[in-house]
Structures are given as C-alpha cells and as structure tokens.
Amino acid sequence: MAIVELYQLTKSYKNNRGISDMSFSIEEGEIFGFIGPNGAGKSTTIRTLLNFIFPTSGSATVFGKDIVKQSKEIRQQVGYLPSEVHYYDDMKVIDLLTYSARFHKNFNAARMKDLAARLDLDVSRKIEDLSFGNRKKVGIVQALLHEPKLIILDEPTSGLDPLMQHHFFDLLHEERKRGATIFFSSHILSEVQKMCDRVAIIKEGKLVRVETIENLTKNKVKNITLTFEKAEPLYVELEGVIKQEVNANEIKLLYSGEIQELLSKLNGLPLHDLLIEEPTLEEIFMHYYES
Ligand code: ADP
C-alpha cells in the first residue's frame, strides 16, 4: 500500500515559486529520499503534506487520507523533524518531551530514555544551554517517541557529528524494521545513497526523476579517460557521449553508449591508456542539474 501519494501537488507562494505538479508515491516500509539543492522545494512539499500550508492545486494522501481534510488524524501517526527546530528555551528537555508526548496516546517513558541515551542526550538540561546539534537530537527524539507509522525528516543530519550520524542511521534502520516508513529529505547525496532505497530528485520546484539508488548507480553511464601519446586536437564524435573534456593529451568522457562502438572508434588512434570507471552518484546527479 502507498503510505504517501501526491497527485500533481502544487504550492505557489505570492511572489515565489514553490512546487508544481509534484506526483510520486512512497510505499510502506521504504526509506525514501528526497533530494535537491537548497530552494528546490523539499520543505514546501513536506509542509504541504503536513497541512502547515495549503496546496494551491492538486492533492495528496497520507495513509490513504486526504492531507487537507484529514490532517489531524494523519499527524497522530507521523513523526516530523523540521529542518529548523524552535523551542521554549526555558524548559528542560525532559519536560518538553513529556509535554509534546501528551499529544500522542502511546507515550512510553522507557522509549524516551532509550532514545535519549542512544543519541547521548542529557534530558535534565535546559534547552537554552544546548548546542545546535543537541537541539537537533531533541527534535529527533520528539519525532520518534510515539512510534509513528511515518517518519518525515527534513535535513535531519545538519549539526550531528559523524559518529552521531552513524547512531542516528542505525536508529532509523531499526525504525524501519519495526515497520515504519521513512521520508528523508536532504541536499547531501552521500547520505541519501547510504540510507535510502529509492529517491525522488527535485529541481526548481519540479520532480526530475524517481529511481532506486541501485538503478541510479548501476546504469550504463561510464567515466572514460583516454590518454594519448601526445596532445591530440580531437573530439570523440559518437552517440552516447554525454560530456567531453579535453586537457592536453587526455580526454574525459561521460559515456552512455555501447562499449563496442567506442572501441571501434578508438581503433587505430595513438592511444597510450584507457580507463573505464563507474561514475560517482555525484556525477550522475550533476548531469540532472546542469542544463
Ligand atoms: P528546500 O526545502 O528544498 O530548500 P523550500 O521548499 O524551502 O526549498 O523553497 C522552495 C521555494 O519556495 C524557494 O524558491 C523559496 O524561496 C520559496 N519559499 C519557501 N518558503 C516560502 C515562504 N514562506 N514564502 C515565500 N516563498 C517561499
């Protein structure tokens, strides 16, 4: 069953582009990445799904329920970590967590202690004394506390050091084993690659592609470096050449065509060396964002 489903969801701000015609779905139990540069529309999509802002047109469902008409019921079963967390500074962490837990039926003190301990968060401290990273941890505990069916994380790792990120990712994998679905927004490719099963790529408010991480990285695109004995005034003209950079006696190609065709094209040229590599996810993504 689809846990989240968007049908041409559109949100325009008065003077700004928000998101337009966004359609995709997230299946139960997935860790689904949402990636795009700052300003692409990730927060706008999430905030519309949670009905903090209203769609301009289109619609969406979460757990099969309408995001506008049934938002209260939806929120009961969603854990949300906003990209920026704001709290009443004067409160102690434990009081804030107990307070926010009252909105959910299944508050579990042992779970709160366990989550805080796993993230190395001292719940007896006042919010105002916490660093940015520690505030983020408060937000994470708050989002996971009531064992939500859907966990929505907007740029969750900013402020967490690498070790803490590691603990946090472990925690998310356990949440998924428990049966949760995770929607993970980020502008950092490596963490999406590490965490997610599928990813939606967005650019300037529009969906560019939805793909499994596996297909994105195992596609036919190759990085090819040709080294010649001396500088060659040469461009490889061949279908499938996505990009070509010439530097002295070296030509770098991003190539998605048939290897046989490339080899016959190179046959007879004064080639000194040939290197064929898998492109990094970064390079594949850049391909979507250039143009
Ligand atoms: P992301 O989360 O991917 O960084 P946002 O959803 O925050 O992107 O922003 C998408 C676009 O919508 C940007 O052009 C941004 O300037 C605009 N935007 C976001 N929030 C508002 C707002 N409250 N009022 C007007 N424009 C906004």
UniProtKB/TrEMBL annotation:
Keywords: ATP-binding, Nucleotide-binding, Transport. GO terms for molecular function: ATP binding; ATP hydrolysis activity. Residues 4-229 form the ABC transporter domain. SMART domains: AAA (SM00382). SUPFAM superfamilies: P-loop containing nucleoside triphosphate hydrolases. PROSITE patterns: ABC_TRANSPORTER_1 (PS00211), ABC_TRANSPORTER_2 (PS50893). It comes from the Bacteria. It holds the Pfam family ABC_tran. The keyword Endoplasmic reticulum does not apply. Belongs to the ABC transporter superfamily. This is ATP-binding cassette domain-containing protein. It comes from Bacillus aerolatus.
